[in-house]
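Input:
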Amino acid sequence: MTPSLPVVALPRATGNGIVGRGEGWLSLDRDLRDSDGDRWYWHVRLTDADGPVEVRMARPGLIGGFGPAISRDGGAHYSWLADRYAVRDRFIVDVGRGEDVLISATLPYGRSDLHRFLDEAGEGMERTTVVLSEAGRPVPFLRLPAAGRLRSRLVLTARHHACEAIGSLVLEGVVLGMLDLRRNGVEWAAHTEVAAYPIVDVDGAESGDQGKARRPHDHNRDYGDVNRYAAVRAIRAAPLFDDVPVAVLDLHTPGLIGPLEERPFLVASGDAGDEEVVSSFAAGIGGGPQADPAVMVFDEPWNSTSGEGARCFAAWARNHPTVRLATSVEYPNAVVRGMPVSRGTAVRFGRRLADALGRVLD
Ligand SMILES: [Zn+2]
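Output:
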């Protein structure tokens, strides 16, 4: 007897996937939409089967080391299916009668997750809409004003690449870390304003797009002469880079599986002195194997202050004389040095970043 197959749909938000039906199994592929290349993000909803469902991936590299992330409570919590690290091309998930199961390549993060964070921790933070996205969604902007005299500013961005959900969790950690430093009376943190764009490509994140490598270019290559996206135009025009010393952390995630994808790293450029600045910041992060980041130098035109054409946010930011540090921070999507990524590991890493910023802004 072939097992009954579930009803398959995309979740209301952050959904992505192309599902086919075999004899007693489902096939699943990521939906590239308008992206190019080797993308990995998917997030689908299975309902109403009769026990175990076999899911076979359409290509390699679509499952992290601990299997897919699964939620049985409507997306409030996700946990990894497997206890042991393995390279997989299929998995089996239980879906009962009337049950609703969300499965994803990573821990998805959309606007409802941001609202949850702000409800829990947002006291003292100003929430503003500076601009509407192409689809009319508010691009979220958070501001934690300096207590007393403004001496420096921290600019945080996540989701220049829509699918890189863990970047938003790391951003939560940096904000929580800054709040803690203030509570503990750390002076530089009290006098530092925090300006944060937790979901830059809000349309892409809500729609479940890959976002990275969009044609003709994505949000993080939109800082050259041509600015396609409303969010990017708003960030460029924001009065964040004109007065006091600034640190910029642009939060990303790499791919899903493999040695390069399973450890945190900071991106330095070939700009004069930049590797030294990024390395000094990185050395202050520490925090053991799950946090301690590598530094990788990407000496490419898109990462250069003098680059023409499609340039990334960090390179654009470094052109301002006020900017002391501007780096892309990469934290893994599924596995961090052998351990499963969780909200806890990502937030802890973000807190370490906040601590280390004293080296830059104090
Ligand atoms: Zn990215």
